[in-house]
Amino acid sequence: MDRRILKTKKAIKRAFAYLLSQKDLNEITITDIANEADINRKTFYSYYANIYEIIDEIEDEIVAIFEETTRNLNMNQFMENPHKIIHQLDLIVNQDLEYYGNLIRMKGNSSLNTKIVELLKTRIQTDLLKEYPQTDPEKITVAMDFIFSGVVETFRIWFNKDRKIPINEVAEIIEMITFSGVKTLLKSNRK
Fold it and tell me: Which are the contacts of 113, defined by CB distance < 8 A and separation ≥ 6?
């Protein structure tokens, strides 16, 4: 793709992410995005038909990054030492803290969190059921729903507050609380 196209699309996405942190989705207009990205409306429409196309593209890009990051991780080892995956996810967010922070803080409705949760949940469930075939899959589903919904919400709250604790310490707290519970479930709850 042409470098100018990439630069313009990046400006549009950043403007949109910033606006999402300031307004509800239904309050954002194409004019708002164009003004924030320092382009005109015609340029916007050269790349996107509407705001929802931006949302889909951003979500798909982020989910692809998370999928690539977790693809080669052994989720069974992750259960023994979750720091590795939390660290990888932390590195992704820290590469562009402002951009990801704006997306996480968004006031409007988005399926980004749901897509990320589903990706991680599916990967871990599949690997856990291979390692612990005697465990009730429904119980793992409940545990993964609880864990990843909580993780995403914890990071969203962190981005919306004063961030007194560094993000890597937040990740460590999540690890300690979450995964000791899952290990207990796997050891004690059999079919």
Answer: 152, 156
140-152 mean pLDDT: 80
Residue 119 half-sphere exposure toward CB, CA atoms < 13 A: 20
User: DSSP state, 96?
Assistant: T
Provide the H-helix boundaries in the chain. Answer: 3-22, 30-37, 41-47, 51-71, 75-80, 83-95, 97-105, 112-131, 137-160, 167-188
- Picking from 120, 124, 149, the residue whose alpha carbon sits closest to that of residue 62 is 120
Task: Enumerate residues 6+ apart whose C-beta is below 8 A from 52.
Answer: none
Query: In this predicted model, what pLDDT tens digit does every residue of 60-97 receive, in sequence order?
Result: 888 888 788 777 766 666 656 656 666 677 777 777 77
Q: Name, in order, each residue with C-beta under 8 angstroms of 77's C-beta and a sequence gap of 6 or more.
A: 84
CA torsion through residues 125, 126, 127, 130, sign: positive
Quick check: 50 and 29 in contact, CB under 8 A? Answer: no
Question: Is residue 179 within 8 Å of 86, Cβ to Cβ?
Answer: no
Question: Three-state SS for 1?
Answer: coil
